[in-house]
Amino acid sequence: MPPIARPRGTNDLLPADAPLWEWVLGTHAEVAAGHGYDLVETPLFEATEMYERGTGAGTDVVEKEMFSFTDRGGRALTLRPEGTPGVLRAVLAAHLEQERRPVRVRYAGPMFRYARPQAGRYHEFWQLGLEAIGERSPELDAEVIEVAWRFHERLGVTGVSLQLNTLGELEDRLRYRAALLDHYRPLRDRLCEDCRRRLEVNPLRLLDCKRDAALVAEAPEIGPSLSPESTAFFARVRELLDGAGIPHTLNPRLVRGLDYYAHTTFELWHESLRGAQNAVGGGGRYDGLAEVLGFPPTPATGYALGVERTVALCREQGLGPNPAPAWVAVLGIGAAGNRAAAQVARELRRAGLRALLDAAERRLDRKLAAASRQGARAAVMVGEEEAARGTATWKDLSSGTQRACAVDRLAGELAGVLEGAPVPAGGEG
Ligand code: AMP
């Protein structure tokens, strides 16, 4: 019988990669918390209708990529393809926006999309993100972008570019839509099949088309369709970013086809991630989403970043946490020694050291060899006699120096060794 295989498009996180992964998540939590963003967790699955309405029935995600199922009670559910609708639902259902505005929240967790698996694109992947809910201001848009920017700075990732655009208000987009129709209708016969279908439904989405790139390049930009208020809003966002020392590239092709998006929209790109997968993340303002989900109108803004892609960038650039803390192997010899070793390990941990216990029925030389191979900095050996006397022998595994001491002095002596301090001369053993 062949062994069970991991499902297509999924990944395992194994111990060798875990420190980098934890460091990326921890750094984001720290940077976001430093800006006042509190952690929220929402379910991994929600009502399918929430994504149909919230993510948008005309999007690729909803049309082609959702993991949807019916539960035993006949409810239509979907594994979350993105975090925003669920987080907004949770915040508004709990009326948090009535206590303070804006509500600043962050999240991190797995998302599910049935996209064709390829490098950097999975069926299950992690996103981390944040949402600032309850205020419509250029200041908040700039703040959210700044958190994403500072996060990459804190990691030390270089080569990230901020692509920025505005979608204005709904009336601006209706004007823009008309301008796009004027441009594209005479070119109808030259459009790809998808674009022809989308033309009358949602012409903004034509700007995403990779096949019709040449026609996209000639399409009008949104600027002339914006009202003076929308133009001023966007100018203020840019001014705030300039003031924060955050460089950005204007990208008039950065559009989102859904009506609930408004004003600022942005993506973070990385030069080493190629093609359609060069975005590390993106976000923007989504003032109309609350209403689409059946809540009172509530402006909001936020972003989502792909964890796998950020981790890949860190790995490529040799970034990561400080080396793992040194640890001690505690090795019992014989039945009484093994029992005493367990107690010694407990005391070392209580004193703040990392102690791995080996209390199996095995020969000491085997235990020592294994501890050495696995990278222990020191080994503590507890035999029957030592157990009786309340002492232990410890060995510095890099220098080979060995020494006995009372168990209650062990943590103090080992702390020095773990920090790389020289072993004291002489000694009791
Ligand atoms: P989106 O919600 O589509 O704007 O995605 C935000 C970020 O999540 C992207 O820039 C990617 O870094 C990441 N992402 C989206 N879809 C996937 C996927 N299928 N596999 C891996 N990462 C993804």
Could you state the oligomeric state of the chains shown? Answer: single chain
Percent range of helical residues: 25-40%
CATH class annotation of the largest domain: Alpha Beta
CATH architecture of the largest domain: 2-Layer Sandwich
Small molecules in complex: adenosine monophosphate
Number of domains: 2
N-to-C terminal Cα separation, in Å?
55 Å
| Strand runs, count | 16
Indicate the proportion of strand residues.
Answer: 15-25%
Per the CATH scheme, the topology name of the largest domain is: BirA Bifunctional Protein, domain 2
Q: Major sheet: order of its strands?
A: 1-5-6-11-10-9-7-8
| Rounded radius of gyration (Å) | 28 Å
Q: Return residue spans where pLDDT drops below 50 for at least 5 consecutive residues.
A: 422-429
SS class: alpha+beta
Q: What does the model show?
A:
With 429 residues, this protein is α+β, with helices and mostly antiparallel strands. It has 2 domains: 18-169 and 227-316, Bira Bifunctional Protein, Domain 2 (BirA Bifunctional Protein, domain 2); 327-418, 3-Layer(aba) Sandwich (Rossmann fold), CATH 3.40.50.800. Helix content is 38%, strand content 21%. It contains 15 helices and 16 strands. The strands form 3 sheets. The chain has an 8-stranded mixed sheet with strand order 1-5-6-11-10-9-7-8, with helices on both faces. The longest helix has 18 residues, at 138-155. The protein is elongated and about 90 Å long. The chain starts with 17 loop residues before the first helix and ends in an 11-residue tail after the last helix. The relative contact order is 0.11. Bound molecules: adenosine monophosphate (AMP). Adenosine monophosphate (AMP) binds at residues 82, 113, 115, 120-122, 125, 127, 279-282, 304-306, 308-309.
